[in-house]
Amino acid sequence: IKVNQNEIRMNLYTGLPNDWVMRGARPSTSSNVNTSSCVIHCSISRRHIKARHCTCNATEQQPVGIASLSSSVSALDSMQADDLLQEMARAGNPVDAKLQSEALSAVFQEPADGVQRVLLRNPAALKLPLSQLVQSTSSLSAVLGLQPLKALAMVAKAPSLVETPAHEVLQQASDIAALVGLPLEDAAPLLAKQPSLLSMPMDELTPQAQRLSSALEISLPGLLLLLSRLSPAHLTSLMDTPSATLTAQVQSIRKLLARSFGGGRGLDAMLLVAHRPALLLASPEQMAQALARLSSLLRLPAHRLTAAVRQCPGLLSMSASQLTINYKGALAAMRIDINTVAQMMAEEPRLLQLDPLVFKSRVEGMMSQLYLPRKQVLDMVVRQPQLLLYLTPTLKAHWTGLKSVLRAPHEVVVVIVQMYPDLLCRSPYTLKAKLEVLQREFRMPPLRAAELATRHPNIFKFSIPHIQAARELLVNDLRVSEEKLPEVVRQNPTLIMQPTATTRGKLADLCALLDASQATAAAMIRDEPLLITQDSRQWQTNFDTMTSQLGLSITQARTASAMFPSLLSRNSKRLWDVCQALSSLVNTSPVWASELEQASPASINRCLSYSPRQLQLLQYCADAGLQAEQPFLGTQLYSKSDFVQRFPGFEIWEVNQRKQPSGSKGKRRRPQGHQRELSLSGSISSGSGSDTGG
Minimal CA–CA distance to 570: which of 545, 551, 590, 542? Predict the structure, then answer.
């Protein structure tokens, strides 16, 4: 067997002689191989590996690597994988969490990275036979109604459960649920987090629970939640702590918070204790020192420091010296500005609990996975500090899953995560589920949904209920037919990227502004989705500009806006300038004023879209007194050559305009006697448009 130097990362036991398992070794075809000791037969190609539990073909000459063995383990059932891993252990090769997690992931159909996290946090589970681990996990999952991953975590935390019959565990869990007054389906997840309670006799647990509930002044269900957040060592210490000591500790925490933040800052002692029960075992002096050191390191105002403590109350149980070491270590490892580090810590205070060496290793892990320089990775981390809380294998799994979900090239996905680094904080299974909801709700083919997510990655920020509610909004409120639904969403994804309550509120505002039906407003939003992304006050501003500056009647403005909704979504400054220019031109002639008064909605939209060149042609007509010969809404304005052919004097006028000083260029003459005429003929005064339009 040829061993590929680029793929092998560690010596793997295959049952072959040891001198074969080394870098670059190639045995001769005449070598005698004892095939009876082989555990796994690999039909290997460069891109595929298939594992069978049979003898080994020693004449196969293809590369093999660590990724191939992981695929082999995941392809076996639990008994076969158990045999393989145990054989590897007997051969002196350590069974790492990756291989074990691949096998368990295949058996339970759970995410491999989630299984691997459970095993890494509870290394004692790696010593259990895989068949026993699978059998115990399956039994507990069935009798307690838990997901396999939660049941696996339960067994990993308390390996002694593999020796306990499932019916005894069920009976103990039912007794504890009855004690605290919760249904078994609600108590089981909490007991899965703290399986040590299942090994305590009920005659000891019952008085302890009542004593702690009375001392801490919390209900029994709340007590179970509190105990589920303790480590086994802290649970034992809490059980041994006298009631008077616990009551005094809670009072000390209350006094510390009142002294540091005052009474109206929203920090309740029991709320912090419920989130971080280990505070009950910390000394008040240590918590006071930690709070003072936290304030000096982060340099935050009181309200932001309150938010940081509420988000991560475990900081109060750390020593002041450890907080300083972690902060300075992070500063040295990341080598960025101290103010930036303080801002990151304030946004994600859990970073202060990390060892300084973790920062460097995780930044380097992101650099190797994304093939990005350090500067760009640090920029992503600064904008999304939560990235540093993830293990490198987890980020790798998220990165691989994101590429698979988007079906996009590596370079495209790199650009996406640089723009939206929070996507790496989302599980690939969550992303896949949201993409499947997009496909189902909006009747999109998989490739079309992936393309939409690639063009608008922030669509992953919205929850599945939001996507489902957005579909109901499109169908029921905006009257989009089922057949047109995929195309409408593809062309106008902003329609589903806004809270449905906000969209319905804007729909009501549009109906009130234009005195229109909901069907008319829905058609306007379908034609101009930009309306949804804008503040409704901009619509009012543009509407008032058309009535007060240009002199349109309320009816004209409403009709034109309903037929051409882009009038309401245009840049307000640009629309103001055009309306002022048109108003000064219209006031030069009663003919033009009458023409504007009788203009159709299409003509109004056309004149409000005049370019500076077209306004210049109208200005020439006004200066030359040609208003009667050139209609205000004439089609000749769209062709300069036709206009010059009809009015040859325009070229001389244009040259003279260029010769004028910049201060006087463009000044328009406003003959007296026509300013008031527009207001009378338009049936609206310049000051009434805004009030009536509202």
Answer: 542
